[in-house]
Amino acid sequence: MPVITCIEDLKQIYKRRVPKMFYDYAETGSWTEQTFLENTSDFQELHFRQKIAVNMEGRSTQTTMIGQDVTMPVALAPVGLTGMQCADGEIKAARAAAKFGIPYTLSTMSICSIEDVAAHTDHPFWFQVYTLKDDDFMRRLMERAKAANCSALVITVDLQMLGQRHKDLKNGLSAPPKLTIKSIADMMTKVSWGLEMLGTKRRFFGNIVGHAKGVSDASSLSSWTAEAFDQSLDWKRIGQLMEMWDGKVILKGILDAEDAKKAADLGADAIVVSNHGGRQLDGASSSIRMLSHIVDAVGHKTEVMFDSGIRSGQDVLKAIALGAKGTMIGRAYTYGLGANGEQGVTDALKVIHKELDTTMGLCGRTRISDINQDILIVPDGFHRK
To answer: For the chain, what percent of residues have pLDDT higher than 70?
Structure first.
């Protein structure tokens, strides 16, 4: 492996190593990809205030997220199909997160099952669910998560229906993937990826196949996914799902202050300001532009986390400065996973931690609790309501 200096280094290795179908899955936004691109580019409009003659000794990035001690204010976000980016990818990512001292979030649409991940890590993880119509399946899914000692439920509230992602359609990326001569030929050139995939039995959606009604194998997945999402979702239904879990709940996919207030009123332990990485409503504002307004609206009622667009520790620091208590990274750790498995995820976390720690010190701060908007130069009109 070459020297890894930034997340982009891992991304370039990832692009060479993983089949195009799965690389494009990670690097896809909906429709024109405006929101996907602005999620990252809008961070560049925020500048730091450099401070000198400040004692920078004894710095610490430690803090808490929903009461859990963490090495830095970062959690691994739920990412579907992680086990296709790298064999047993969910297990490897969960292990890396546990060793680093940050939360890992397992997606319902993971390749490795809840039980697989629980059996291979001794650290509690978070579990993500969609707002599905099938109460029986949802209850059993949550019971499995509780049996696996999952410490929080992350409910994704911005995916009642799928935003159209052109690259996924052209590549045949679906549940399950539709293999073509072109995609098979590409996979055959990814030798190390292919050998690892041949060495694992985990290649299908372990939380769904054999558990959802009528889904006994991969071939029956597509009809289930087409019908499973609840387009009639309302706040009452979200409340019902929270009651089913009866534990710590994080609502992910909030991009509006009024929605944030309703989430807080329901008793959510945390909300995640997120536009699903630009994969749902194209043309929506970037998450970072909406963060401050949402924090102002509900920051005293519930914990506000941030997701969508983070590619560095500096991005993490900017989100914390604008009021987030924690952040989630998805693509940034996926690059590392695809590049070099568990070690690649660890490399990504080391990069982000070093950038966060160094930048915090150069801004004259030594503790996460001391971070506020004073460390930033924010252009007029940046925040949106």
So the answer is: 99
